[in-house]
Amino acid sequence: xxxxxxxxxxxxxxxxxxxxxxxxxxxxxxxxxxxxxxxxxxxxxxxxxxxxxxxxxxxxxxxxxxxxxxxxxxxxxxxxxxxxxxxxxxxxxxxxxxxxxxxxxxxxxxxxxxxxxxxxxxxxxxxxxxxxxxxxxxxxxxxxxxxxxxxxxxxxxxxxxxxxxxxxxxxxxxxxxxxxxxxxxxxxxxxxxxxxxxxxxxxxxxxxxxxxxxxxxxxxxxxxxxxxxxxxxxxxxxxxxxxxxxxxxxxxxxxxxxxxxxxxxxxx
Length: 268
Fold this sequence. Notes:
By secondary structure, the protein is mostly beta strands. The chain contains 3 helices and 15 strands. The two termini are 27 Å apart. 10% of the residues lie in helices and 39% in strands. It has helices at residues 7-12, 37-51, 184-190; strands at residues 15-16, 21-22, 30-31, 34-35, 58-65, 74-82, 86-95, 98-108, 150-157, 168-175, 207-217, 229-234, 237-239, 242-251, 256-267.
């Protein structure tokens, strides 16, 4: 498996065609039959900002994963509406002529407001580099391909197939490739890095597939120490083969950056 192609490489290699922006995605960035969902979202953001210049800061993202995204996806960006403060852009992601994902980005100018509230957390006292590896060396051969592009450390909760009842994972993660660590596209690509929150509750392998992903961006300042982000996912409800999981991302100092919600199809 070739892990030499980084996220920054794919983003930088995006080229425009009549159908939209495209790039080549190697097998090492796959998750089962499809590209890793965070990668699809990050590249879609890259297509949006490459198509339309002078956009205000990103405020929210709505992603619907409709089908597999292959090795040569095409990202077609269109403006749904441009108002005085909010611009909404739709990016359809096609694979072999079939819709693989639909991503709606809302970009909004800052306004003065009497409301200003954040809920920071206290980061681990131990240096993030010193925390225990999320994936033990012997388990690297069974994790999804894309996961090995990240350096991920377990803070709390459990790994997949632990047979634990809480459905909770809290970790620190960053791209192994340093040039891939900066910018909004990078953050979106990393924000989906953790396994579904339901997986620590089971003891057997089974397919999982993200159905949708709703993301709220909580700050204009997308920066952190040495590329590290604190990422969390927690099962809130599960049944009938589907689960709902709130997800959070903080910077390395515990400042809130993303609040999200994802629906996951479970074949276990």
